[in-house]
Design a protein that fits this description.
The chain contains 19 helices and eleven strands. It is of the alpha+beta class. The protein is globular.
Length: 423
């Protein structure tokens, strides 16, 4: 058993280990959203067969907010129980002090073929603290058969989505489908709501990105009020009240069961809604997220995950080799084809086999390469507080407890206090 300041068994139990702690050479944390865990395990088995080493794979909470808290607990304890961490695109700056510089363990030029922006995101004070594994941007899933049935076009604005959702929902309910809804998304008070709400706000002209690149708070403006007011009107109208507790998988469950017209989610859901087990297979298509009004623009928020090696690992070279394998061209191609996970290698977006499996990787390429970043770089270690304040405010607005105007005014004051004290 690995040693550490926190007993390994306790740590692994806390993150939902898929099997008891063993004397594996390495331990890797992986997400478990959709088919993510199975794809991770398959990649690990390929590396084990190639190297003769063994890896214990443990799953982590689906909520990014809960996962970050757990990672910080493990790393602050300087525990060696986890060697390789799957980290969110907004975490490198926060976790960098606990991560090795992969430049010292990988060959020269190891990042040459990756998206430069993601490599830059993962480089902190000249140190490469994580390798890009898969990237993401929010997209709109829709039932093409139902839009055809009601002679509707794919909406290009949030207002258009609202109208189309109302039309189809009313028609389907009149036909006896009382549990049918127009739109599902991630409305729980967690990082996923920060992403959804930022997509709404940033899609409006001058809606802002909560905090801009200069560190100025931009969230309290008329366009943000309009965006959140529109979204609040969805609850109990085109979206079930239960959406206020949805993460990615709850939204996918409703949509994949055939009970929603539109869904906001990440690209991973494509492989699942098109699987043989899906009741809506071949009746789904994907489009960019709508714009905020006729003068707005689609604003899918940048997501994605990376692989990093703990400074407290007993085997940093071996762990870095595992990271290099899992982020390699062949592995990323396999994950794209089998699970519709967006590669971090531009060449794979021109690969015929990848495009045959996930056609929208080609048609929505610009969506993925121009995604809107969250304000993690400018707020640094305080990003979790900024995001927490934002998603809690949005959740209160969606719940009907405060108006958008009241919520954003309160948020502005809270962020201003945080900026004065800590930025």
């Amino acid at each position: 058993m690995k040693s550490g300041l926190i007993p390994a068994g306790c740590l692994l139990a806390a993150i939902g280990a898929v099997s008891p702690v063993t004397a594996a050479d390495l331990t890797l944390s992986c997400g478990a959203v959709g088919a993510e865990l199975q794809l991770c395990q398959a990649g690990v088995k390929r590396w084990e067969a190639q190297t003769g080493h063994s890896v214990e794979v443990v799953s982590t909470p689906n909520s990014a907010t809960e996962r970050l808290s757990l990672y910080q607990q493990i790393l602050n304890a300087r525990s060696s129980d986890i060697d390789v961490f799957q980290i969110d695109v907004v975490w490198p700056g926060m976790l960098a002090p606990h991560l090795i510089d992969l430049n010292e363990h990988l060959p020269d030029g190891a990042t040459d073929d990756f998206f430069e922006a993601i490599v830059d995101n993962n480089t902190v004070d000249g140190r490469l603290v994580a390798m890009p594994w898969f990237t993401d941007a929010g997209v709109l899933y829709y039932r093409s058969d139902l839009l055809d049935k009601y002679d509707l076009e794919v909406p290009t604005t949030w207002e258009g989505l609202t109208e189309a959702a109302q039309t189809v929902q009313a028609g389907e309910r009149e036909a006896g489908r009382s549990d049918f809804w127009g739109y599902v998304f991630q409305g729980r008070a967690y990082e996923g709501l920060t992403v959804n709400a930022l997509e709404w706000i940033a899609s409006y002209p001058d809606g802002g990105t909560i905090v801009d690149d200069d560190g100025d708070i931009t969230v309290n403006n008329a366009q943000a009020v309009e965006a959140l007011s529109l979204a609040a009107g969805w609850i109990d109208n085109i979206s079930p009240r239960g959406v206020l507790n949805y993460t990615e998988e709850e939204a996918r469950g409703v949509f994949q069961s055939g009970n929603a017209l539109f869904m906001r989610n990440w690209p991973y859901a494509w492989d699942l809604v098109q699987s043989e087990q899906s009741g809506i297979r071949d009746r789904v298509e994907v489009a960019p997220l709508p714009a905020g009004g006729e003068d707005g623009q689609s604003a899918g928020v940048l997501g994605g995950w990376n692989l990093a090696v703990s400074r407290y690992s007993d085997h940093p070279d071996m762990a870095a080799d595992l990271v290099a394998f899992l982020t390699s061209f062949d592995e990323q191609k396999r994950r794209a084809i089998e699970g519709s996970y967006n590669p971090t290698l531009p060449a794979l977006y021109q690969d015929d086999e990848v495009l045959a499996a996930v056609p929208f990787f080609g048609t929505l390429y610009d969506t993925f390469t121009s995604a809107v970043p969250r304000p993690a770089a400018v707020t640094g270690d305080n990003y979790p507080r900024v995001s927490n304040a934002f998603f809690n405010t949005v959740h209160e607005v969606l719940s009907g407890n405060v108006s958008a105007e009241q919520g954003l005014e309160q948020l502005d004051r809270e962020l201003s206090r945080l900026k004065r004290r800590r930025w």
